[in-house]
Amino acid sequence: MQVLKQVLAASAALVLSGCGGRTIIESDMSRMVSASPASPWLTVENPGIAVLTVTGLEQKEKVQVTPDVATAVEARLRTTLQPKYFTDLIVNCRGLEVAVGAKTGAEPPSLDVDMALSCRITARGPAVTKSYRVHRSQKIDPAAPRLESAVPALIDAASSELADRVWADVVATGARR
């Protein structure tokens, strides 16, 4: 029995060493979140997306965004839209999807993020539901992609573009500030 346990332990060690010993890459967006204003009129639902798989590299990498991605997106929307807020404006977004991929064969090599979600905008009565798709890209060095800083930068840039699109749809409702 003791020999069997040792064989199983050795087998497990070999299997794990074959995985390359990769760990999750940590990326911290907590400063951006804590610096954003409180805006109870604006929500991004779908918390829990915290680990993003980056495809297109030699090996799939996992980047853990702290806090979760929905919280970071909501923080950027609040920071951008809070100065434009008017009474009786409610923005509720849900169904957030985020995909991150590297294009190492492109010239220049890039890291791309694709973000999609649906928002219901209620502006002094009229309500509209809009679906948004945002794509952002930045150059990377495939040998050292620095995902811990590149992924948060792309999420922030995509969230800023999303905020501009949401505001354009708020204005399109005809509500005045």
Give the total of domains.
Answer: 1
Task: Characterize the main sheet.
Answer: 7 strands, mixed
The low-pLDDT segments are 1-21
* Number of helices, counting only DSSP H or I runs of 4 residues or more: 4
User: Class, according to the CATH hierarchy?
Assistant: Alpha Beta
Q: Please trace the helix and strand order, writing H or E for each element.
A: HEHEEEHEEEH
Radius of gyration: 21 Å
Strand content: 25-35%
Shape: elongated
Q: Would you tell me the structural class of the helices and strands?
A: alpha/beta
Structure notes:
The chain has 177 residues and is an alpha/beta fold. It has a single domain (23-172), classed as Rossmann fold (3-Layer(aba) Sandwich), CATH 3.40.50. It has 4 helices and 7 strands. Strands 1, 2, 3, 4, 5, 6 and 7 form a 7-stranded mixed sheet that branches. Strand 5 (89-103) and strand 6 form a beta hairpin. Helix 3 packs across helix 4. The longest helix is centred in the C-terminal third of the chain and has 26 residues, at 147-172. It is elongated, with a radius of gyration of 21 Å. It starts with a helix and ends in a 5-residue tail after the last helix. Residues 1-21 have low confidence and may be disordered.
